[in-house]
Amino acid sequence: MGNPQPLTGGTAVGRAAMVIAGLVLAALVAGHLLGVPILISYAESDSMEPTIDRGDGFVVIPDAVAAPVETGDVVVYEPQEIEGGELTTHRVVDETDHGYLTRGDANVVTDQDGAEPPVTDGQIAAKALQINGEVVTIPHLGTAVMGVQSGLETIQLELATTLGTGTLLGSEGLATLLLVFGLGVLALTAILESRASDRDRTRTRSRRGVFDARLAVFGMVVLLCLVSAGTMVAMSDTTEAGIVSAEFESDAPHVIPTGDTEEHTYEVRNDGVLPVTTIIEPASDGVAVDSDAQTLHRGDSVNETVAVTAPPETGYYLRSFAEYRYFAVLPTPVIAGLHAIHPWLAMGATTGVIVGAFVLPFAILLGTGTIRTRSRQRTDHKRGFVRRILRS
């Protein structure tokens, strides 16, 4: 029997390609479930042609870390009236005192020429990455994803009909289906590798039942980062409300006399198990929040005051404020200070503390060597050697 061969360049490139494809799929699925595009998104219509063709993917920068929006930027935003409220990718063509004017490159009129009000910062989820003014696209990525999604939706419907349950439908059902599919792929891969290892009876340095401890620790770090950061993103939200600036008084809460300011009470409640630190701040013009960072334990609630000012011109306007939530693993003033610099800095520090608290004990316990799950390993060569000793 020959010596085991090291990984070839083709094998390494193939595995790297599989990892990248897995990361892209994970980013797309996570963005779909959270309603916020993560790293990658795709065009579902032809409104941005020829910049972004229908079915093309494109690289996005989350609004939390993107530079301020400027005229000419391509943004992904959550509309109020068009596209059924689904995330829309259009270009900012102008900026007014009340928000941005947007338009698809293939359209002749702006979104605001229709029923859509000017877009506020609180509605923008991400910006498309542009290099030298050109959007970075990935041809046909969206077409492939939409094909896979259509197939998964068909499978969801068939399973729900067969099993008589609706829990497999919708975004949560899709996530469950993808999780089961991923576990199935992992199980199949483990079986195939086990059979391949059974055929190879030679002694190798990479023995069955022996795992790299560093790989296990790295896996825990990645998993905890995804879970903690993803949960905080999901807990945070932007609240939007339409107001009418009118020249008359009204009992309707959304009608405010021009130039006047009205205060509204917003309840912040923690229904989760873990304590959280909440921070509320304006996400559009005409909104003021008189609030400090608050740490809430399970079941706690607090009322915050949000002041909304009507513009001096009459009309319909969109106003919004954002609520950020962080796990309360750091003192409240520390989280507030980091948030004041940038929300992602507070989220990164919080995630780092959580990961360190869970992973450090395991890292100390496991060390940097190997984990052996079998006490001994015998090969054909060893059994032959034992037989020869017995015969002698």
TrEMBL record:
InterPro entries: LexA/Signal_pep-like_sf (IPR036286), Peptidase_S26B (IPR001733)
Main location: membrane
Key word Nucleotide-binding present: no
Transmembrane intervals: 12-40, 173-192, 213-235, 344-368
GO MF, one example: peptidase activity
Subcellular location: Membrane
Gene Ontology cellular component terms for the protein in this record: membrane
Keyword Protein transport: no
GO biological process, any: signal peptide processing
Keywords from the UniProt entry: Membrane, Transmembrane, Transmembrane helix
UniProt-listed CDD domains: Peptidase_S24_S26
PANTHER family recorded: SIGNAL PEPTIDASE COMPLEX CATALYTIC SUBUNIT SEC11 (PTHR10806)
Descriptive protein name: S26 family signal peptidase
